[in-house]
Each structure stands twice: as C-alpha cells, then as structure tokens.
Design goal:
This protein has 103 residues and is of the alpha/beta class. It contains two helices and seven strands; from the N terminus they run H-E-E-E-E-E-E-H-E. The longest helix has 10 residues, at 8-17. It starts with 7 loop residues before the first helix and ends with a strand.
Length: 103
C-alpha cells in the first residue's frame, strides 16, 4: 500500500528512509543519476509510487514526486517535476514513456 504524505519534504524523507536515495534528473531523453552522471533510458526504469502536491500558499510550489526503480533493481531514487503551467513538457513526455507500477 502506498504511503500518505502531507507535503513534499515529508515525502522525500519517507522515501529516503525506504531506500530511494538516488537523486534522478532528466538528461536528453534519459534519466541520470546526479551524483554519478550515469544515464539510463526510460525503458530501464519504472515508477513505483508517485505523489502530487499542491502549493498551499504558492501555486509555484505544485509538484509531482516520482519514486522510481531500475528494472534490474540496482538503483532506487526520486525524480521531482513541476506540473501545470510550470511543468517541463520534455519531462512530462519522458515520464509518460515510463511504465507505471503502483504498489
């Protein structure tokens, strides 16, 4: 069953405690580990959980947090994306390519 979090910092802390420690970002149609620079194609990952947060006082803070895992199990981490008018269309396109598996 998916956890319930009230805000983005709480979700990040909770996911880190459950082993989602890699900080992922987008890099030219791939997902990259910011620490190592290793880039993997979207086909090598799946979304395990996702959380959407509204900006309580500032709509600019609206975001989606994805808990993702490599299909071979060697990497677990998080990818954060804005949504709405502030979302990055490339990010949304890439995320749509990932398989979603909610537990």
């Amino acid at each position: 069953m998916q956890q319930v979090y009230d805000n983005l910092p709480e979700a990040i802390t909770g996911l880190k405690a459950r082993g989602y420690t890699t900080d992922f970002s987008l890099a030219f149609e791939k997902i990259a580990c910011n620490k190592t620079g290793k880039a993997l194609s979207p086909a090598e990952f799946e979304i395990i959980e996702h959380y959407r947060f509204e900006g309580d006082t500032d709509p600019d803070n609206a975001s989606v947090l994805y808990a993702i895992s490599s299909k071979d199990g060697s990497m677990k981490g998080m990818l954060i994306n804005a949504y709405g008018v502030y979302s990055d269309p490339i990010t949304d396109e890439l995320v749509n390519k990932l398989s979603v598996h909610l537990t």
